[in-house]
Amino acid sequence: MLKRFTFNTFDLTLTIEEYQALISLPADRGNKSYIYDRKLTLQRSLSKFMGDIHASEIKKQIKTKEGKNCIPINYLINLVRGCLSRKKGLSLIALCIYGTVIFPRIKRYVEEEVVKIFVGIE
């Protein structure tokens, strides 16, 4: 069920521009949209993002929890430790935070949908 912030019939939900102003994001930054790609799997999206890790290696780490494909946080943290690029390392840390703090459905795992959205926007 989709919930909205309303007062009587007036919609109080913030617009994208209002959110940008709240977090002091410049409007001319070039906003990116997420486009869902049904063919993009968890291993392909993470492999594409990392660049130097083959999808078959990532596939070995994928577990099914509560009917969803997930990647262990510990595996992502180990990728951060071995990452040569500071930017990719910081992005992986952000992915771990998004997966555990913002979308905390399965403990110690990041769900496939979270990885796809993060990689799609990143």
From TrEMBL:
Taxonomy, superkingdom: Eukaryota
Family matches, as InterPro entries: DUF7745
Residues of the DUF7745 domain: 2-119
PANTHER family, alphabetized: PROTEIN, PUTATIVE-RELATED
Protein name, entry field: DUF7745 domain-containing protein
Originating organism: Cucumis melo (Muskmelon)
